[in-house]
Amino acid sequence: MSYNQEEYVLDKMDDKNIIKSNIKIFHLLEILVDNGKLSLGELSQLTGYSKSSTQRIVNTLKHMKYINQDKKNNEYYPAAKLYDLGSRVINNISIKNVSKQYLLELRNMTNETVNLGMLNEDSVIYIDKIVSNSPLRIELELGIRFPIYCSALGKSIAAFVDEEITFSNKYIKYTENTISSDEELKKELITIKKQGYAIDNEEYVPGLVCISVPILNLSGYAIASISISIPAFRYDNNQIDYYVNLLKETARKIQGELF
Predict the structure, then answer these.
(1) For the residues 144-153, what does the mean pLDDT come to?
(2) What are phi and psi for residue 44, nearest 5 degrees?
């Protein structure tokens, strides 16, 4: 349906149970998502709404954190909250069910704890795990949240979202290895995107090393991530390629069922 046709449907709609102003908000949001980045004038032109109406809509979406505005050119673009929202929908529908068998396979191949995580604003949440059979293991509780910057799960997702991640240099130094600045985080996310995996080298919990890869949608954006958690005393850096290859293969299987 073209944008003009969409506006025509809106004008002709007479169902009193439908809130037309909400339709306009979602219509504009869909156009912005399709185009990636647009100015106020371009949004007004594509939607057919007046500039004053368009301005009120984008102000509302900014307030709700569904869109951001580029300070350099004042253009608007979708915010990570949209990816988070979509990710949670997928989680509720299928991702935990789809992932479970593959996480179990991965645990059996490595005999280490494997995890599934998703972003929630500036944190990552453990939504599933299969624990190691070894009595010597370190594991975190399901549902626990922790900052993106000190987690392999979080960093592997953050490297594959279309938004700059910043904590305004307000970092908690959980261990000596914890990232402590936006500049350091930015550099690491660039490296992670190039190599396709992230490492948490005792950055949140002393004695725990995690390796993670993202689960990507068809557009190449991360909707979740999976990781292997290994006690530091058992971790051998020479095996990094082995773990990464297993993780990437597992992620491909999950993506293949989801998309």
Answers:
(1) 91
(2) -60, -45
